[in-house]
Amino acid sequence: QVNLLQSGAALVKPGASVKLSCKASGYTFTDYYIHWVKQSHGKSLEWIGYINPNSGYTNYNEKFKSKATLTVDKSTNTAYMELSRLTSEDSATYYCTKGFDYWGQGVMVTVSS
Amino acid sequence: DIVLTQSPALAVSLGQRATISCRASQSVSISRYNLMHWYQQKPGQQPKLLIYRASNLASGIPARFSGSGSGTDFTLTINPVQADDIATYYCQQSRESNTFGAGTKLELK
């Protein structure tokens, strides 16, 4: 069955970067885009962008273009999202999703000194 | 950006019908495709796809969930509401980029 397993919660200092992972299984990894979605505490969902695992092509929400970098490792069926120059506004739960039909369990990122 | 507007909350009795609406700031339909989708999210869980392209039931979703609408106005219906359906429901459009509504919290009356 399809499963997206995300890395564990992260506590990071302001100004630092963090790289989140999303390991896919149960389907052909290169056949579906991986999207990333942000959910601030108690708030709605924001689409960050997607990556085509086959070609590496990426498409970002304008708001996150200088914040997020999406990559994949086809050898391990893993997608990554790196968030840079973190501030308190980046504290949130981040989800990876296979075309919005299957979602990872989410990873909470807390930015605090 | 296409803005999606949802009512913040809806109170319903168990066994009754719940109708959750979502209005888009511009049409999210292309030809015969209505690019509006619905998700259920319970506290501490990831969103779950319920309905895709306005009216198509996602795999494994009970038939008491249904969706309708076109253009700018869409509806998610749950009939009858069961206790397990108490959650927050989000609409999402994929006509232009991807945006989500603010969510409607389904509560028991």
The average pLDDT of chain A is 97
Strand content of chain A: over 45%
Shape of chain A: globular
Q: How many β-strand runs of chain A?
A: 11
Main β sheet profile of chain A: 7 strands, mixed
**Rg over C-alpha atoms of chain B, rounded to the nearest angstrom:** 13 Å
Shape of chain B: globular
Assembly state here? heterodimer
Stretches with pLDDT under 50, minimum 5 residues of chain B: none
Helical region count of chain A?
0
SSE order of chain A: EEEEEEEEEEE
The end-to-end distance of chain B, rounded to whole angstroms, is: 35 Å
Outline the biggest β-sheet of chain B: 7 strands, mixed
Distance between the termini of chain A: 40 Å
Structural account:
The complex is a heterodimer of chains A (113) and B (109). Helices cover 0% and strands 50% of the residues of chain A. The mean pLDDT of chain A is 97. Chain A has strands at residues 3-6, 10-12, 18-25, 34-39, 45-51, 58-60, 68-73, 78-83, 92-98, 102-103, 107-111. Chain A has no helices and eleven strands. In chain A, strands 2, 4, 5, 6, 9, 10 and 11 form a seven-stranded mixed sheet that branches. In chain A, strands 1-3-8-7 form a four-stranded antiparallel sheet, with no helix packed on it. Chain A is mainly beta. Chain B contains no helices and 13 strands. In chain B, the strands form three sheets. In chain B, strands 2, 6, 7, 8, 11, 12 and 13 form a seven-stranded mixed sheet that branches. Chain B has a four-stranded antiparallel sheet with strand order 1-3-10-9, with no helix packed on it.
